[in-house]
Amino acid sequence: MADNAVQFELVSPEKLLLSEDVEMVVVPGAEGDFGVLPGHSPMISTVRPGVIHIFEAGAVKTRIFVAGGFAEVTTARCTVLAEQAMPLDEIDRAVVEKDLQDANEDIRDTGGDEAQLAIAESRAATARAKLAAMDNLVYQ
Q1: Are 28 and 49 in contact (CB under 8 A)?
Q2: In 3D, which of 122, 133, 137 has the Cα closest to residue 50?
Q3: Is the dihedral of CA 62, 63, 66, 71 positive or negative?
Q4: CA atoms within 13 A on the CB side of 58
Q5: Domain spans of the chain, in order of start
Q6: What pTM does this model have?
């Protein structure tokens, strides 16, 4: 690994999705986005639904939507354990809009079942985050 790079790993429940040296990675932390460069202070954070931005040569090389998870940062590495991850440009708006509609209907139809309500609210929040990510590209 080069001195001016940080090793980034993205892991889903099924497999290792990405492992490469990058200039910088910006992660959607629960308390706000945080950028990781070589020499970053060690930390652990929960990850909210949002976009991971991977930088090379001063520009965004890759955008990956994650539906939440955890991130561990060391001075040389950033590892994100994502509940779900997919390249932002592979998300189908129509599918997401339908999922949001279905989740909102499920919220209305839970009949007081708190567990079902929590699942439906999580699905709706993830769908809203996907739509927001597609509509509001940052770091252009």
Answers
A1: yes
A2: 133
A3: positive
A4: 0
A5: 6-88, 91-135
A6: 0.87
Backbone angles phi, psi at 92, to 5 degrees: -95, 115
Distance CA 10, CA 31 (A): 20
Ordered per-residue pLDDT tens for the chain, 140 residues: 567 899 999 998 888 999 999 999 999 999 999 999 999 999 999 999 999 999 998 899 999 999 999 999 999 999 999 999 999 999 999 999 999 999 999 888 887 788 888 989 999 999 999 999 898 877 76
Q: What would the two tokens of residue 28 be?
A: 């959607």
CATH, domain 6-88, list 2.60.15.10, 1.10.10.200, 3.30.70.100, 1.10.287.70 = 2.60.15.10
| Alpha carbon distance 7, 18 (integer Å) | 10
Query: Which secondary structure element, helix H or strand E, spans residue 81, and what is its range?
Result: strand 77-82
pLDDT on residue 113:
81
Euclidean distance between CA atoms 99 and 120, whole angstroms = 10
